[in-house]
What does this fold into?
Amino acid sequence: MFMASVNPATGETLRAFDEHTEEQIDQAIGRADAAYRKLRRTSFAQRAGWMVAAADRLDADADDIARMVTFEMGKTLAAAKAEVAKCAAACRFYAEHAAEFMADEPADAAAVSATRAFTRYQPIGPVLAVMPWNFPLWQVIRFAAPALMAGNVGLLKHASNVPQTALFLGELFRTAGFPEGAFEPLLIGSKQVERVLIDPRVRAATLTGSERAGRSVAEVAGRELKKTVLELGGSDPFVVMPSADVDRAAEVAATARCQNNGQSCIAAKRFIVHADVYDAFTEAFVATMSALRMGDPLDDATDVGPLATEQGRTDVEEQVRDAVAKGARVLCGGQRPDGAGWFYPPTVVADLTPNMRMWSEEVFGPVAGMYRVASYEEAIELANGTSFGLGSNVWTRDEAEQERFAVDLDAGSVFVNGMTTSYPHLPFGGVKNSGYGRELSAWGIREFCNIKTVWMGEGTAGADAGAHTE
Ligand code: NAP
It folds into this structure.
Protein backbone atom coordinates (compact mmCIF):
# COMPACT_ATOMS: atom_id res chain seq x y z
CA MET A 1 0.00 0.00 0.00
CA PHE A 2 1.12 3.57 -0.57
CA MET A 3 0.09 7.04 0.49
CA ALA A 4 -0.21 9.78 -2.07
CA SER A 5 0.15 13.50 -1.84
CA VAL A 6 -2.28 14.89 -4.44
CA ASN A 7 -2.67 18.55 -5.40
CA PRO A 8 -6.39 19.39 -4.82
CA ALA A 9 -6.20 22.32 -7.25
CA THR A 10 -5.28 20.06 -10.18
CA GLY A 11 -5.84 16.45 -9.13
CA GLU A 12 -2.20 15.71 -9.98
CA THR A 13 -0.27 13.22 -7.80
CA LEU A 14 2.78 14.99 -6.41
CA ARG A 15 4.50 12.18 -4.53
CA ALA A 16 3.69 8.73 -3.21
CA PHE A 17 5.14 7.01 -0.15
CA ASP A 18 5.08 3.38 0.90
CA GLU A 19 3.10 2.78 4.05
CA HIS A 20 5.17 1.64 7.01
CA THR A 21 5.52 -2.10 7.45
CA GLU A 22 4.76 -3.91 10.69
CA GLU A 23 8.51 -4.02 11.42
CA GLN A 24 8.88 -0.26 10.84
CA ILE A 25 5.91 0.47 13.13
CA ASP A 26 7.42 -1.68 15.87
CA GLN A 27 10.80 0.03 15.52
CA ALA A 28 9.19 3.48 15.63
CA ILE A 29 7.36 2.65 18.86
CA GLY A 30 10.64 1.30 20.25
CA ARG A 31 12.44 4.53 19.39
CA ALA A 32 9.61 6.54 21.00
CA ASP A 33 9.83 4.47 24.17
CA ALA A 34 13.61 4.93 24.37
CA ALA A 35 13.27 8.66 23.64
CA TYR A 36 10.77 9.03 26.49
CA ARG A 37 13.24 7.58 28.98
CA LYS A 38 15.76 10.23 27.90
CA LEU A 39 13.41 13.16 27.48
CA ARG A 40 11.77 12.86 30.89
CA ARG A 41 15.18 13.33 32.49
CA THR A 42 15.96 16.55 30.63
CA SER A 43 15.27 19.96 32.14
CA PHE A 44 12.58 22.41 31.08
CA ALA A 45 15.37 24.76 29.98
CA GLN A 46 16.87 22.10 27.72
CA ARG A 47 13.54 21.27 26.12
CA ALA A 48 12.69 24.96 25.78
CA GLY A 49 15.92 25.47 23.83
CA TRP A 50 14.93 22.75 21.37
CA MET A 51 11.36 24.05 21.13
CA VAL A 52 12.59 27.55 20.33
CA ALA A 53 14.90 26.05 17.68
CA ALA A 54 11.83 24.43 16.09
CA ALA A 55 10.05 27.81 16.17
CA ASP A 56 13.07 29.50 14.57
CA ARG A 57 13.05 26.94 11.76
CA LEU A 58 9.32 27.47 11.16
CA ASP A 59 9.88 31.21 10.92
CA ALA A 60 12.98 30.94 8.74
CA ASP A 61 11.50 28.46 6.24
CA ALA A 62 7.92 29.74 6.40
CA ASP A 63 7.54 30.31 2.65
CA ASP A 64 8.73 26.83 1.64
CA ILE A 65 6.72 25.10 4.37
CA ALA A 66 3.59 27.03 3.42
CA ARG A 67 3.97 26.07 -0.27
CA MET A 68 4.28 22.40 0.68
CA VAL A 69 1.02 22.66 2.66
CA THR A 70 -0.82 24.52 -0.11
CA PHE A 71 0.25 21.97 -2.72
CA GLU A 72 -0.70 19.09 -0.47
CA MET A 73 -4.13 20.15 0.83
CA GLY A 74 -5.19 23.22 -1.12
CA LYS A 75 -5.49 26.02 1.44
CA THR A 76 -4.48 29.44 0.13
CA LEU A 77 -0.82 30.31 0.43
CA ALA A 78 -1.70 33.27 2.65
CA ALA A 79 -3.62 30.94 4.99
CA ALA A 80 -0.72 28.46 5.01
CA LYS A 81 1.76 31.20 5.92
CA ALA A 82 -0.51 32.33 8.76
CA GLU A 83 -0.67 28.74 9.99
CA VAL A 84 3.13 28.41 10.02
CA ALA A 85 3.43 31.65 12.01
CA LYS A 86 0.79 30.48 14.50
CA CYS A 87 2.71 27.24 15.02
CA ALA A 88 5.97 29.08 15.69
CA ALA A 89 4.18 31.28 18.23
CA ALA A 90 2.69 28.25 20.01
CA CYS A 91 6.13 26.60 20.24
CA ARG A 92 7.52 29.76 21.82
CA PHE A 93 4.52 30.02 24.16
CA TYR A 94 5.08 26.54 25.60
CA ALA A 95 8.86 26.97 25.68
CA GLU A 96 8.26 30.00 27.89
CA HIS A 97 5.39 28.76 30.07
CA ALA A 98 5.71 24.97 30.45
CA ALA A 99 7.76 25.09 33.68
CA GLU A 100 5.22 27.45 35.26
CA PHE A 101 2.24 25.31 34.12
CA MET A 102 3.86 22.19 35.56
CA ALA A 103 5.29 23.67 38.74
CA ASP A 104 4.50 21.81 41.96
CA GLU A 105 1.35 23.07 43.63
CA PRO A 106 1.62 23.21 47.43
CA ALA A 107 -1.38 22.12 49.49
CA ASP A 108 -2.38 23.00 53.03
CA ALA A 109 -0.09 20.49 54.80
CA ALA A 110 -1.73 20.91 58.24
CA ALA A 111 -5.18 20.14 56.82
CA VAL A 112 -3.95 16.74 55.60
CA SER A 113 -1.81 16.00 58.70
CA ALA A 114 1.44 16.28 56.73
CA THR A 115 4.62 18.23 57.15
CA ARG A 116 4.51 18.87 53.43
CA ALA A 117 1.99 18.03 50.70
CA PHE A 118 1.83 19.06 47.09
CA THR A 119 0.68 18.13 43.58
CA ARG A 120 3.34 17.28 41.03
CA TYR A 121 2.77 17.06 37.26
CA GLN A 122 4.82 14.39 35.52
CA PRO A 123 4.86 13.04 31.94
CA ILE A 124 3.27 9.68 31.19
CA GLY A 125 5.08 8.39 28.09
CA PRO A 126 4.50 7.95 24.36
CA VAL A 127 1.17 9.43 23.17
CA LEU A 128 -0.41 8.48 19.86
CA ALA A 129 -1.66 11.54 17.96
CA VAL A 130 -4.22 10.87 15.22
CA MET A 131 -4.55 14.07 13.24
CA PRO A 132 -6.59 15.60 10.37
CA TRP A 133 -5.44 17.32 7.21
CA ASN A 134 -7.33 20.62 7.53
CA PHE A 135 -4.71 22.49 9.58
CA PRO A 136 -2.00 19.90 8.97
CA LEU A 137 0.67 21.78 10.92
CA TRP A 138 -1.37 23.55 13.60
CA GLN A 139 -3.42 20.55 14.75
CA VAL A 140 -0.20 18.63 15.31
CA ILE A 141 1.79 21.46 16.89
CA ARG A 142 -0.92 22.29 19.39
CA PHE A 143 -0.51 18.75 20.69
CA ALA A 144 3.24 18.38 20.14
CA ALA A 145 4.50 21.61 21.71
CA PRO A 146 2.93 21.03 25.15
CA ALA A 147 3.53 17.27 25.00
CA LEU A 148 7.25 17.56 24.29
CA MET A 149 7.68 20.38 26.81
CA ALA A 150 6.04 18.15 29.44
CA GLY A 151 8.56 15.40 28.68
CA ASN A 152 6.16 13.16 26.80
CA VAL A 153 6.90 11.90 23.30
CA GLY A 154 4.59 11.68 20.28
CA LEU A 155 3.75 9.08 17.64
CA LEU A 156 2.02 10.89 14.79
CA LYS A 157 -0.58 9.15 12.64
CA HIS A 158 -1.41 11.99 10.29
CA ALA A 159 -4.25 11.98 7.74
CA SER A 160 -3.40 9.81 4.73
CA ASN A 161 -3.52 12.74 2.27
CA VAL A 162 -0.76 14.79 3.98
CA PRO A 163 2.28 12.46 4.17
CA GLN A 164 4.75 15.19 3.21
CA THR A 165 3.62 17.40 6.11
CA ALA A 166 3.77 14.40 8.45
CA LEU A 167 7.38 13.63 7.51
CA PHE A 168 8.31 17.31 7.76
CA LEU A 169 7.00 17.49 11.34
CA GLY A 170 9.13 14.50 12.38
CA GLU A 171 12.20 16.10 10.85
CA LEU A 172 11.38 19.49 12.44
CA PHE A 173 11.67 18.22 16.00
CA ARG A 174 14.60 15.92 15.26
CA THR A 175 16.70 18.67 13.72
CA ALA A 176 15.69 21.10 16.49
CA GLY A 177 17.55 18.82 18.93
CA PHE A 178 14.92 16.56 20.53
CA PRO A 179 16.17 12.97 21.01
CA GLU A 180 15.75 10.56 18.09
CA GLY A 181 12.24 9.09 18.38
CA ALA A 182 10.74 11.95 20.41
CA PHE A 183 8.30 12.74 17.63
CA GLU A 184 7.84 9.84 15.20
CA PRO A 185 5.60 10.07 12.14
CA LEU A 186 3.97 6.75 11.26
CA LEU A 187 2.86 6.40 7.64
CA ILE A 188 -0.11 4.17 8.37
CA GLY A 189 -3.78 4.02 7.45
CA SER A 190 -6.59 4.29 9.96
CA LYS A 191 -6.93 0.49 10.15
CA GLN A 192 -3.53 0.27 11.86
CA VAL A 193 -4.37 2.76 14.61
CA GLU A 194 -5.69 0.00 16.85
CA ARG A 195 -2.48 -1.99 16.48
CA VAL A 196 -0.45 1.01 17.70
CA LEU A 197 -2.83 1.96 20.49
CA ILE A 198 -2.88 -1.50 22.06
CA ASP A 199 0.92 -1.62 22.24
CA PRO A 200 1.74 -1.45 25.97
CA ARG A 201 4.51 1.09 25.30
CA VAL A 202 1.89 3.59 24.06
CA ARG A 203 0.25 5.25 27.06
CA ALA A 204 -2.52 7.48 25.67
CA ALA A 205 -4.05 8.92 22.53
CA THR A 206 -5.28 12.23 21.23
CA LEU A 207 -7.46 12.45 18.13
CA THR A 208 -8.60 15.44 16.14
CA GLY A 209 -11.05 14.51 13.42
CA SER A 210 -14.54 13.25 12.78
CA GLU A 211 -16.97 11.86 15.31
CA ARG A 212 -16.73 8.45 13.66
CA ALA A 213 -12.93 8.31 14.03
CA GLY A 214 -13.22 9.58 17.62
CA ARG A 215 -15.65 6.86 18.59
CA SER A 216 -13.41 4.21 17.08
CA VAL A 217 -10.26 5.36 18.91
CA ALA A 218 -12.14 5.90 22.18
CA GLU A 219 -13.51 2.36 21.97
CA VAL A 220 -10.06 0.81 21.64
CA ALA A 221 -8.58 3.11 24.28
CA GLY A 222 -11.45 2.31 26.65
CA ARG A 223 -10.79 -1.39 26.32
CA GLU A 224 -7.09 -0.78 26.98
CA LEU A 225 -7.74 1.71 29.83
CA LYS A 226 -5.76 4.43 28.12
CA LYS A 227 -6.63 8.09 28.38
CA THR A 228 -7.90 9.95 25.33
CA VAL A 229 -8.46 13.56 24.35
CA LEU A 230 -10.93 13.95 21.48
CA GLU A 231 -11.32 17.09 19.36
CA LEU A 232 -14.14 16.22 16.99
CA GLY A 233 -16.51 17.88 14.56
CA GLY A 234 -18.63 20.95 15.04
CA SER A 235 -21.56 22.79 13.53
CA ASP A 236 -21.00 26.12 15.21
CA PRO A 237 -23.85 28.59 15.50
CA PHE A 238 -23.28 32.22 14.47
CA VAL A 239 -26.05 34.17 16.17
CA VAL A 240 -26.98 37.72 15.13
CA MET A 241 -29.31 39.67 17.43
CA PRO A 242 -31.15 42.97 16.77
CA SER A 243 -28.57 45.19 18.53
CA ALA A 244 -25.64 43.78 16.48
CA ASP A 245 -23.45 45.76 14.11
CA VAL A 246 -24.99 43.92 11.17
CA ASP A 247 -22.50 44.98 8.49
CA ARG A 248 -19.52 43.99 10.61
CA ALA A 249 -21.20 40.70 11.53
CA ALA A 250 -21.88 39.92 7.85
CA GLU A 251 -18.27 40.62 6.90
CA VAL A 252 -16.89 38.40 9.67
CA ALA A 253 -19.54 35.76 8.87
CA ALA A 254 -18.15 35.27 5.36
CA THR A 255 -14.60 34.88 6.71
CA ALA A 256 -15.80 32.63 9.53
CA ARG A 257 -17.56 30.32 7.04
CA CYS A 258 -14.96 30.33 4.24
CA GLN A 259 -11.66 30.38 6.15
CA ASN A 260 -9.52 27.41 5.16
CA ASN A 261 -11.80 26.88 2.13
CA GLY A 262 -14.68 26.18 4.50
CA GLN A 263 -12.91 23.28 6.21
CA SER A 264 -12.48 24.32 9.82
CA CYS A 265 -13.99 22.56 12.82
CA ILE A 266 -14.80 25.94 14.41
CA ALA A 267 -16.03 27.58 11.22
CA ALA A 268 -19.42 29.24 11.63
CA LYS A 269 -21.80 26.83 9.90
CA ARG A 270 -25.33 27.72 11.02
CA PHE A 271 -26.33 31.39 10.79
CA ILE A 272 -29.11 32.04 13.28
CA VAL A 273 -30.43 35.54 12.73
CA HIS A 274 -33.15 37.49 14.56
CA ALA A 275 -36.10 38.40 12.33
CA ASP A 276 -35.56 42.15 12.98
CA VAL A 277 -32.20 42.05 11.16
CA TYR A 278 -32.57 38.89 9.07
CA ASP A 279 -33.10 40.61 5.72
CA ALA A 280 -30.38 43.23 6.24
CA PHE A 281 -27.87 40.63 7.45
CA THR A 282 -28.68 38.13 4.70
CA GLU A 283 -28.35 40.74 1.97
CA ALA A 284 -24.94 41.90 3.25
CA PHE A 285 -23.75 38.34 3.87
CA VAL A 286 -24.75 37.07 0.42
CA ALA A 287 -23.04 40.08 -1.18
CA THR A 288 -19.80 39.35 0.73
CA MET A 289 -19.93 35.62 0.01
CA SER A 290 -20.56 36.25 -3.70
CA ALA A 291 -17.63 38.67 -3.88
CA LEU A 292 -15.10 36.10 -2.57
CA ARG A 293 -12.73 34.95 -5.29
CA MET A 294 -12.40 31.22 -5.79
CA GLY A 295 -9.34 29.99 -7.64
CA ASP A 296 -5.67 28.98 -7.58
CA PRO A 297 -4.63 28.81 -3.91
CA LEU A 298 -1.13 30.02 -4.83
CA ASP A 299 -2.56 33.29 -6.20
CA ASP A 300 -2.55 36.17 -3.67
CA ALA A 301 -5.92 37.38 -4.99
CA THR A 302 -7.66 34.08 -4.15
CA ASP A 303 -9.92 33.92 -1.10
CA VAL A 304 -11.19 30.36 -1.48
CA GLY A 305 -9.20 27.44 -2.91
CA PRO A 306 -10.32 23.87 -3.62
CA LEU A 307 -11.60 21.38 -1.07
CA ALA A 308 -8.85 19.02 0.05
CA THR A 309 -10.26 15.82 -1.41
CA GLU A 310 -12.63 14.78 -4.17
CA GLN A 311 -14.77 12.92 -1.62
CA GLY A 312 -14.98 16.07 0.51
CA ARG A 313 -16.46 17.99 -2.41
CA THR A 314 -18.89 15.19 -3.22
CA ASP A 315 -20.10 15.17 0.41
CA VAL A 316 -20.77 18.92 0.41
CA GLU A 317 -22.47 18.79 -2.97
CA GLU A 318 -24.78 16.00 -1.80
CA GLN A 319 -25.73 17.88 1.37
CA VAL A 320 -26.74 20.97 -0.68
CA ARG A 321 -28.56 18.83 -3.25
CA ASP A 322 -30.51 17.10 -0.48
CA ALA A 323 -31.59 20.46 0.99
CA VAL A 324 -32.66 21.84 -2.39
CA ALA A 325 -34.62 18.68 -3.21
CA LYS A 326 -36.55 19.17 0.04
CA GLY A 327 -37.39 22.82 -0.60
CA ALA A 328 -34.37 24.94 0.45
CA ARG A 329 -33.34 27.98 -1.62
CA VAL A 330 -29.79 28.66 -2.80
CA LEU A 331 -29.07 32.40 -2.45
CA CYS A 332 -25.61 32.24 -4.04
CA GLY A 333 -23.17 29.55 -5.25
CA GLY A 334 -24.42 25.98 -5.19
CA GLN A 335 -22.85 24.80 -8.46
CA ARG A 336 -19.40 23.28 -8.83
CA PRO A 337 -17.34 24.88 -11.61
CA ASP A 338 -16.15 22.93 -14.66
CA GLY A 339 -12.50 22.02 -14.94
CA ALA A 340 -9.80 20.38 -12.88
CA GLY A 341 -9.53 20.55 -9.11
CA TRP A 342 -12.05 20.03 -6.32
CA PHE A 343 -13.52 23.52 -6.19
CA TYR A 344 -16.88 24.41 -4.66
CA PRO A 345 -18.02 28.05 -4.48
CA PRO A 346 -19.08 30.06 -1.41
CA THR A 347 -22.75 29.15 -1.04
CA VAL A 348 -25.65 30.38 1.08
CA VAL A 349 -28.73 28.19 1.57
CA ALA A 350 -31.99 29.45 3.15
CA ASP A 351 -35.31 27.92 4.23
CA LEU A 352 -33.75 24.91 5.94
CA THR A 353 -36.02 22.43 7.73
CA PRO A 354 -35.24 19.62 10.18
CA ASN A 355 -35.68 16.87 7.58
CA MET A 356 -32.68 18.15 5.61
CA ARG A 357 -29.18 16.76 6.18
CA MET A 358 -27.73 20.28 6.50
CA TRP A 359 -29.92 20.85 9.56
CA SER A 360 -28.19 18.24 11.68
CA GLU A 361 -24.90 17.36 9.92
CA GLU A 362 -21.61 19.23 9.84
CA VAL A 363 -20.96 20.79 6.41
CA PHE A 364 -17.20 20.71 5.77
CA GLY A 365 -17.00 23.22 2.92
CA PRO A 366 -17.89 26.88 2.19
CA VAL A 367 -21.67 26.45 2.56
CA ALA A 368 -23.71 28.53 5.01
CA GLY A 369 -27.16 27.59 6.29
CA MET A 370 -29.57 30.44 7.23
CA TYR A 371 -32.06 30.25 10.10
CA ARG A 372 -34.58 32.98 11.06
CA VAL A 373 -35.60 33.24 14.74
CA ALA A 374 -38.06 35.48 16.59
CA SER A 375 -36.55 35.62 20.09
CA TYR A 376 -33.53 35.00 22.34
CA GLU A 377 -35.10 31.73 23.51
CA GLU A 378 -35.58 30.50 19.97
CA ALA A 379 -31.99 31.44 19.09
CA ILE A 380 -30.65 29.43 22.05
CA GLU A 381 -32.87 26.46 21.28
CA LEU A 382 -31.66 26.30 17.69
CA ALA A 383 -28.03 27.01 18.55
CA ASN A 384 -28.01 24.19 21.11
CA GLY A 385 -30.20 21.93 19.01
CA THR A 386 -27.46 19.76 17.49
CA SER A 387 -25.40 16.87 18.72
CA PHE A 388 -22.28 19.08 18.49
CA GLY A 389 -20.91 21.62 20.98
CA LEU A 390 -17.54 22.90 19.80
CA GLY A 391 -17.41 26.69 19.35
CA SER A 392 -20.07 29.38 19.09
CA ASN A 393 -20.29 32.97 17.95
CA VAL A 394 -22.68 35.72 19.02
CA TRP A 395 -23.26 39.24 17.77
CA THR A 396 -25.09 41.59 20.14
CA ARG A 397 -24.36 44.96 21.72
CA ASP A 398 -26.78 44.29 24.57
CA GLU A 399 -24.59 43.58 27.61
CA ALA A 400 -27.18 41.60 29.53
CA GLU A 401 -27.76 39.44 26.46
CA GLN A 402 -24.00 38.86 26.08
CA GLU A 403 -23.88 37.43 29.61
CA ARG A 404 -26.93 35.24 28.97
CA PHE A 405 -25.39 33.76 25.82
CA ALA A 406 -22.11 33.08 27.64
CA VAL A 407 -24.07 31.00 30.17
CA ASP A 408 -26.70 29.39 27.96
CA LEU A 409 -24.72 28.26 24.90
CA ASP A 410 -23.80 24.59 25.11
CA ALA A 411 -20.33 24.82 23.60
CA GLY A 412 -16.64 24.61 24.47
CA SER A 413 -16.26 28.32 23.68
CA VAL A 414 -18.39 31.42 23.23
CA PHE A 415 -16.99 34.33 21.22
CA VAL A 416 -18.96 37.58 21.36
CA ASN A 417 -18.63 40.25 18.64
CA GLY A 418 -15.50 38.69 17.11
CA MET A 419 -14.59 35.58 15.14
CA THR A 420 -14.19 32.24 16.93
CA THR A 421 -10.57 31.13 16.86
CA SER A 422 -7.92 29.46 19.04
CA TYR A 423 -5.09 30.97 21.08
CA PRO A 424 -2.32 29.15 22.97
CA HIS A 425 -3.39 31.17 26.03
CA LEU A 426 -6.96 29.80 26.15
CA PRO A 427 -8.26 26.23 26.47
CA PHE A 428 -9.74 24.68 23.32
CA GLY A 429 -12.19 21.80 23.05
CA GLY A 430 -15.81 20.79 22.92
CA VAL A 431 -18.77 19.29 24.74
CA LYS A 432 -21.37 16.73 23.59
CA ASN A 433 -20.32 14.90 20.40
CA SER A 434 -17.60 17.46 19.69
CA GLY A 435 -15.40 15.53 22.11
CA TYR A 436 -13.79 15.91 25.51
CA GLY A 437 -10.57 17.05 27.07
CA ARG A 438 -8.84 20.34 26.34
CA GLU A 439 -5.88 21.44 24.29
CA LEU A 440 -3.80 24.62 24.68
CA SER A 441 -3.16 26.77 27.79
CA ALA A 442 -2.19 25.10 31.08
CA TRP A 443 -5.13 22.70 30.66
CA GLY A 444 -3.63 21.28 27.45
CA ILE A 445 -0.19 20.46 28.89
CA ARG A 446 -1.71 18.75 31.94
CA GLU A 447 -4.01 16.43 29.96
CA PHE A 448 -1.22 13.91 29.46
CA CYS A 449 0.37 14.23 32.89
CA ASN A 450 0.30 12.08 35.94
CA ILE A 451 -1.19 14.46 38.48
CA LYS A 452 0.71 13.02 41.40
CA THR A 453 -0.14 13.60 45.05
CA VAL A 454 2.93 13.79 47.26
CA TRP A 455 2.30 13.58 51.01
CA MET A 456 5.16 13.69 53.51
CA GLY A 457 4.78 13.03 57.19
CA GLU A 458 7.03 13.29 60.19
CA GLY A 459 10.75 13.07 59.60
CA THR A 460 10.62 14.56 56.09
CA ALA A 461 11.95 17.88 54.95
CA GLY A 462 9.39 20.66 55.14
CA ALA A 463 10.85 22.52 52.20
CA ASP A 464 8.52 24.40 49.90
CA ALA A 465 7.44 22.66 46.76
CA GLY A 466 8.84 24.31 43.65
CA ALA A 467 9.58 23.70 39.99
CA HIS A 468 11.09 20.32 39.20
CA THR A 469 13.05 19.36 36.15
CA GLU A 470 10.97 16.45 34.96
P1 NAP B 1 -11.29 11.94 9.79
O1 NAP B 1 -11.69 11.25 8.57
O2 NAP B 1 -11.90 11.55 11.07
O3 NAP B 1 -9.71 11.82 9.87
C1 NAP B 1 -8.96 12.35 10.96
C2 NAP B 1 -7.86 11.39 11.31
O4 NAP B 1 -8.44 10.20 11.84
C3 NAP B 1 -7.03 10.93 10.10
O5 NAP B 1 -5.70 10.75 10.51
C4 NAP B 1 -7.68 9.63 9.73
O6 NAP B 1 -6.83 8.76 9.03
C5 NAP B 1 -8.02 9.07 11.10
N1 NAP B 1 -9.12 8.12 11.10
C6 NAP B 1 -10.22 8.12 10.32
N2 NAP B 1 -11.03 7.09 10.66
C7 NAP B 1 -10.42 6.44 11.67
C8 NAP B 1 -10.76 5.29 12.43
N3 NAP B 1 -11.89 4.63 12.23
N4 NAP B 1 -9.90 4.88 13.39
C9 NAP B 1 -8.76 5.56 13.61
N5 NAP B 1 -8.38 6.65 12.91
C10 NAP B 1 -9.21 7.09 11.96
O7 NAP B 1 -11.54 13.50 9.68
P2 NAP B 1 -11.12 14.48 8.50
O8 NAP B 1 -12.07 14.33 7.38
O9 NAP B 1 -9.68 14.33 8.20
O10 NAP B 1 -11.29 15.88 9.23
C11 NAP B 1 -12.49 16.54 9.27
C12 NAP B 1 -13.16 16.36 10.63
O11 NAP B 1 -12.28 16.74 11.66
C13 NAP B 1 -14.33 17.31 10.76
O12 NAP B 1 -15.37 16.65 11.42
C14 NAP B 1 -13.78 18.42 11.61
O13 NAP B 1 -14.74 19.20 12.27
C15 NAP B 1 -12.90 17.67 12.53
N6 NAP B 1 -11.92 18.56 13.16
C16 NAP B 1 -12.03 18.83 14.49
C17 NAP B 1 -11.15 19.71 15.10
C18 NAP B 1 -11.24 20.07 16.55
O14 NAP B 1 -10.31 20.64 17.08
N7 NAP B 1 -12.32 19.74 17.25
C19 NAP B 1 -10.13 20.28 14.34
C20 NAP B 1 -10.05 19.97 12.99
C21 NAP B 1 -10.95 19.10 12.41
P3 NAP B 1 -6.95 8.55 7.43
O15 NAP B 1 -6.69 9.87 6.81
O16 NAP B 1 -5.92 7.54 7.14
O17 NAP B 1 -8.36 8.09 7.20
